[in-house]
Amino acid sequence: MKDFIVIGHKAVTAPFSLNDLPGAAGRMDILCRCVNAALFLSHDLRRDVRVHLVLKGEPAPPKLVRFDGAAVRYLSPDERSAASLIKKALEKNAQDFWTESMPGVSIRKGDFGDLLRELNKKIIYLREDGEDIRGKELGESPDGFLFVLGDHMGLTGDEEKIIEGYEHEIVSAGPLSLHADHCIIILHNEMDRAEKHI
Amino acid sequence: MKDFIVIGHKAVTAPFSLNDLPGAAGRMDILCRCVNAALFLSHDLRRDVRVHLVLKGEPAPPKLVRFDGAAVRYLSPDERSAASLIKKALEKNAQDFWTESMPGVSIRKGDFGDLLRELNKKIIYLREDGEDIRGKELGESPDGFLFVLGDHMGLTGDEEKIIEGYEHEIVSAGPLSLHADHCIIILHNEMDRAEKHI
Average model confidence (pLDDT) for chain B? Predict the structure, then answer.
């Protein structure tokens, strides 16, 4: 299982208009592109991937939304499609446990720390000054992988402290500073190659 | 200069609604994501990149829309932002020569063949059965690079024939079949690494 966590510091926690994802929805466009990057192959979905979105914007933070590649349906590659599923999840009355809002999409109340506690595995934290991902061993891991990425604001000091409570490494996807969804594409490419030994 | 050509076989050639890019606009979402993938760094644009979109859908095909990273303004990373600039370009009365519709965005009448004739350089054509991009020499080239990618339908036999009239090679971005925008991310990563010698 490959898990991706993306933290949306401004991403709203109530239903939003699909016509202004970057503005009124608090850079929800970033999270939508990460869902696309993590889950889509050309004419298929990556079934061994889950994407966890941490929504920290108003009015009712924090909330967690999860896309499960093995179960998700009604998801198209465009941003608006992922946004529509996130919006539907936010229409649910979120509890302290996961509730499925649509096939393969679930929501709960909870923060980054709750999510890490639940997943409880080694963290690969993407940061532009991290060690180069290329050369890391990404071929096999009994627990799979857990990647953590920030939005346009990166991670806060407090969030980094939470990561430090777990086994972790800090890696970068290349020599330039890239958007989170672009990093996810590169991570997948490295894992695809490692799995195929090329 | 790095040039990317993406062919949109169904992409409409008249102004369209921003609320249905995959449907009524003929998979315009694919082209918008390619614009994002080709041009965006984390808090910057790739100034040495141009993206050329070939729009082959109704009602007035073919048309070419160009985004020039050195000049473009008013472009945000979300799909709707690129779509809005494409739409504005389509509001122009397209001629047989380039007309700028917004800073860094231009439109003309013309087809894939016209564009290749104009750019007139070696083509790197992305196809899933091509040779692995990794290991190719992408560090330096006096003319830069010209990449050609298809939409969800790939390239037609006729389009491939046009490519065969030029010096070209056929490459793939990895072991799995990926969306065009995901391929662009991987191509950039390879070029970024080659330029930095890592």
Answer: 96
